[in-house]
Amino acid sequence: MAANVRATRIAQQLSQEKLAKMVGISYQQLQRHETGRDRIGAGRLQQIAAALQVPVTHFFAGPPEDATSDVVSASTGDDLLRFLVSEVGVEFNQAFRRIRCPDTRRDIINLVGSIARQHK
Fold first, then answer.
1. What distance in Å separates the CA atoms of residue 75 and residue 22, rounded to the nearest whole number?
2. pTM (2 decimals)?
3. Is 54 exposed, middle or buried (0-12, 13-18, 19+ CB in 10 A)?
4. May I ask the CATH architecture of the domain 2-60?
5. Which of 66, 94, 67 is nearest to 7 (CA)?
6. pLDDT tens-digit profile of 5-46?
7. Three-class SS string for 75-103?
């Protein structure tokens, strides 16, 4: 849940300071929530959801079971989530989403895959 709060905040291009101010807490407190150091209570989660304009259930969503069961192990899934919420991961995904042509998207996936295999 904490990672989903962070991912949603980053996807909406909000800083911790900005979201914390919207919720009425310090950015340090928000940081502790996002890292899982402090539990996010129901009331606080509702405030965060309202500020991010998403339903509370959004933070409980994970990848569909069948989407990762055969392809991504738990540790790889953790690595993937860390990448997706990183600055580079968000920037890459935002740029990739702007590409509308499916063939171009597939070409980019193939290119990145080829480069990754060379750097193993």
1. 34
2. 0.56
3. middle
4. Orthogonal Bundle (1.10)
5. 94
6. 988 888 888 999 999 999 999 999 999 998 889 999 999 999
7. HHHHHHHHHHHCHHHHHHHHHHHCCCCHH
The identity of residue 45, as a single letter, is L
Delimiting residues of CATH 1.10.260.40 domain(s) in the chain: 2-60
- Measured distance CA(108)–CA(87) in Å, rounded: 19
3-state secondary structure the chain: CHHHHHHHHHHCCCCHHHHHHHHCCCHHHHHHHHHCCCCCCHHHHHHHHHHHCCCHHHHHCCCCHHHHCCCCCHHHHHHHHHHHHCHHHHHHHHHHHCCCCHHHHHHHHHHHHHHHHHCC
